[in-house]
Each structure stands twice: as structure tokens, then as C-alpha cells.
Amino acid sequence: MSADINAIQSDLRAAKLDGWLFYDFRGRDPIAQGILQLPPGMRTRRWYYFIPAKGQPRKLVHKIETESLAALPGETLFYSRQEELRKNLGKLLGRAKNVAMQYSPKNAIPYVAMVDAGTVELVKSAGAKVVSSADLVQKYEACWSQQQLESHLAAGAAIDRIVREAFQVAAKNVREKKMFTEYDLKQWILKEFEAADITANDGPDVAVGAHASDPHYGPTPESASPIRDGDLLLLDVWGKTKTPGSVYYDITWVGYLGAKVPEKMASIFAIVSEARDKAIELIRTSVAKGKPLEGWQVDKAARTVIEKAGYGKYFFHRTGHSIGQAVHGNGVNMDGLETHDDRHLIPRTCNSIEPGIYLPEFGVRSEVDVYIGEKEARVTGAVQKEILALLA
Q: How far is residue 306's CA from residue 291's CA, in Å, rounded to a whole number?
């Protein structure tokens, strides 16, 4: 299997670009390797692969690694001396003036900023203007096949069940006054993952009280707190099936170890869920109308709700992230805070929507996944409406 050169060239022409220049040195750009579908091989020297908007691709490789790009179509140029590299880079680019690379001006979107500044300078010296490949990247890195969507839904069905049961396990141990920690519950979830053929790179995050105000808290045997009566319990759980090429499902729910959720916790959740729903509705209406929508705009929709409620400083991460074969994918993020992500939401991609408010004594987050189809967007799992009263 190899890169679809014709499809890439069609996208380049649509974007009014003269070509896409892929460059790597010692595996620094996994995006290039993924999109070009390069097989394993020895590549210890710099290599370049140029796909023009029209015509045949061209390669530039070192003379001691002549076969390093043999799996890719196109004419091959070689270099060993520095002077040869510069001269043949010019030949590689030909008359191309606007060239896409894994570059982001001022590192605005660091997820695609794989090319070092010196290489950008070198390409510019060859007469080309370098522009960001960010929008191109997400089409080839973030779009799902039908099989991947089905794998996401299958993982979601298993994870939704496991999360429901995890809350029940926590409540049972509290009722029976047994010593049961965040780490114990994490291990219980991982055993259920194994039984359901679900895998994850790390996690899940299981947090009570102040630990829930750390969005990336992961309990260890040393750090874990006991789960007790009166605690707010946050579960951030992600995973995928073990089928090759499968994609992640990623959710966060919160429960309260008591019969009645305290008013302050309930009011904070109401603000968070309204922010979540505003973001979801913006995506749904924009997709239905065929209206272009950028990642930072979704972030703004959610963040405005929390800021107006007076909790803006307690929401200190982006509203959502791209989801793919890695839980944090290479597509557009719902982000106007950490970055200004001006990439467009495009069909066959999926993102988390996960606003939160993190107070010193407890934190609340509600996370769902939103899949964008050709003409509609939908949440792929259950949507939490209120904090679960686990001892009711």
C-alpha cells in the first residue's frame, strides 16, 4: 500500500499550491512517514520527497542510501556533498513557488510543526515560499474510514459499560466501608479493558476531590487517594479495539459518593454541560448548513459560557482535541487558548468536546466525542446530563 499521489495532487490544485515537500531526518517527522506510508528501512541521512500539483514526484536522497525511498514513485536525485544537496534541492523543486511543508508560522499549530527552521531557510533559498501543510495533513491523517468509525462505536459501547460499572464498584466499596483507592479502581478498569479486548496507550484517569482539578492526573500506588463517602469522582477513560487501524473513544464522566449532589458541585456541572452543549450545537448547525467552521471558534463557544459565569480562570485547557489511531490525533483541535487553531473541521473526522472547571477543592469535566459526517455531526456516545448520585 502506498500514498495516493493522484488524490494529493488534486488537493494541492484545489489549495492553489505548487507542491508538497516532505522532508525527514532520523524519523523526526512521523507525519511524513505516515502519509507516504513508508515501509521500515535505513534512513540515517536527510531525504526529500516532492509531490508537485502536476507531473511526476521527485526524490532527493543520499548516495549511500539510494534505495531509502524506493517504495515511492518518481525520479531520484542524489547528493553527498553539501553543494550537491543545495543544487539538487533546486532541481527537485523546479519552478514551484508555493510549497507546503510540515511547518507552522510562529509555531501556531505545533502538532504539525515538524520541519526545523534551518530546513525552511534552505528551501526558501532555493526560491520557494514555504506554507503550512496543516489543512492537508488532517485530510490524510485525521479522516476515518467506515471501518474505523465502526471500531470507534464498538470501543464506545464497551467503554460506556465499563464506566457505568466502575461507578457502581466505587459505590459498593464505599457502602461496605472498604479501603478502595483511585489506583484500585484504575486497575479494575484495566482488567475490564482486557476482558473486552480494549487497549489504551496509558490511563485511565481516576480522580477524587482536588485530584479531579488536575486534568491529566493519573493515580499511582503512591499518589492515590482513598475513595470515600462525600467525594466527587471523575473518570476520564479512553481506549480502542485491538483491531489494526482502529481509532479511540474518549469520554469523561463525574459521580458523587453520596445520596444527594451538593449544590455547588451541581451548579458547576450545569455550567460545564452548557458549555459542552453550546460547542456541540455550533458544530451541528455549521455542518448541517455547510458553513465553514474553524477549531478556535468551537473553543470560543464553550469558553464564553464559562467566562460569563465567572469561572474563566478555572478553565485552562483547550475545549477539545482531534481523535484518531492515537487518542490525540493530528487533525484540528478545538483550541483558541493554547493555540489559535484555524484549521477547518472537515468530514470523516472526530473530536472530543471536553470543557471543565477546576476549583481548588474539586474539578468537573464533561467529555463527549463528536463525529463529523458529510452533512451532519453527531455525538457518538451517551451525554451526561447531571452528576451521578452514586449512593442514592
A: 25
- Chain-centroid distance of CA 71 in Å reads 29
> Is there a single domain that holds both residue 287 and residue 381?
yes
Instruction: Look up the domain containing 215 and give its range.
Output: 146-389
69 vs 21: CA distance, rounded Å: 14
Kindly state whether residues 116 and 238 are assigned to the same domain.
no
Answer with the one of 125, 141, 157 that is the final residue of a domain.
141
Residues 37 and 125 both lie in one domain: yes
CA 162 to chain CA centroid, nearest Å: 23
The CA distance from 341 to 221, in Å, is 37
Q: Single out the residue of 374, 348, 1, 317 nearest to residue 150, CA to CA.
A: 348
- Average pLDDT of the chain is 96
> Read out DSSP for 228-257?
-TT-EEEEEEEEEESSTT---EEEEEEEES
Report the domain count for the chain: 2
Would you place residue 2 in the very low, low, confident or very high pLDDT band (cuts 50, 70, 90)? low
Whether pLDDT at 1 is above 60: no
Mean pLDDT of 26-52: 94
152 and 144 Cβ atoms separated by less than 8 Å: yes
As a whole number of Å, the CA-based R_g of the chain is: 24
Residue 39: is the preceding peptide bond cis (ω within 30°)? no
Residues 130 and 160 in one domain: no
Q: Give pLDDT tens digits for 127-183.
A: 999 999 999 999 999 999 999 999 999 999 999 999 999 999 999 999 999 999 999
Q: Name the domain boundary from 114, 141, 168.
A: 141
Q: How far out from the chain centre does Cα 337 lie?
A: 16
Whether residue 247 is found in the same domain as residue 383: yes
